[in-house]
Amino acid sequence: MNELDAAGILAPELRAAYTECRRINAHYGRTFFLATRLLPPRARPAAHTLYGFARMADELVDNPAPGSDPAAALDRVGELVDVVFSGGTPDEPVLVALADTVRRHGLSRELFDAFLKSMRADLAPVEYRTFAELDEYVYGSAAVIGLQMLPVFGTVGSLADAAPGAIALGEAFQLTNFLRDVGEDLDRGRLYLPTAELAAFGVSRALLEARRPDPRIRAALAYFVARTRAVYRRAEAGVAQLRPESRPCVRTALTLYEGILDEIVALDYDILTRRAVVPKSRRLVVALPPLVSVWAREKFDSGRRLRS
Question: Rounded to two decimals, what is the model's pTM?
Fold first, then answer.
């Protein structure tokens, strides 16, 4: 069954809006998009939409159009979020889908306000001294997305019981991004790896910006990889709090995203001028078995509906 039909999304304008979010997810979020194929069809449109909104705002800051004003663009997004939570109809497709997703799943305004606050923090050069200082940014930029996804995935108990795992999921993905993108972030005037932690290994911002292999950088990055793997373990522990039909999606996303850390190690931590990417072959090895299982189940269910 078409996922929009499965979700009961029938109005032409809504279908077009959700389709645009799916396009954004497929284009920008290959790993997460692949994992969403493991969700029940009815849950996929909302997952695409939450990703699409986050990516839209992130692109305004990271890759602004020539001559545009990223701060003004983010303010406009904030105004559209106001429209969403006042019960109005926004005039931008991603926000049209978001408004419907918010209403269907009862999502909290606080989660979106925290996200936009972190996006605004990226408008100026950034540097964090400790992980404690970084926590607020990571909560807004990533943990809240895990929390937004919880009602979409569904839980076996209360949302509060599942929240720690969802927060760890967002943190694990974001910390992985910080490691993968450290060179690109330096180009944008940002350094998300806490400077006090780096200094413990004798690494300064200037040393990173020199972009030369150095045993001190290697040791620091090895520490950050090990620390991030511990966050993945917390996220994995939270998977059991999700509805069974959503667990393959999250487990696959966790495995594939942690694979970026494996690629960083395989590059011997030489990532200041190179980007660690999980090969397509490995993505297929991880995702194909659960995908085949999901497709077989959907085909069976479709045949049963036709016979009934």
Answer: 0.91
Contacts with 19 (C-beta within 8 Å, 6 or more apart), sequence order: 4
End-to-end CA distance of the chain: 15
Tell me the pLDDT tens digit for each residue of 196-255: 999 999 999 999 999 999 999 999 999 999 999 999 999 999 999 999 999 999 999 999
**Backbone φ and ψ of 28, nearest 5°:** -100, -30
Buried (b) or exposed (e) across 100-114, using 16+ Cβ within 10 A? Answer: bbbebbebeeebbeb
DSSP alpha helices (H): ranges in the chain? 3-6, 12-28, 30-36, 44-62, 70-85, 93-105, 109-121, 131-138, 144-153, 159-180, 182-187, 195-199, 205-210, 215-237, 247-266, 280-307
Amino acid at 131: F
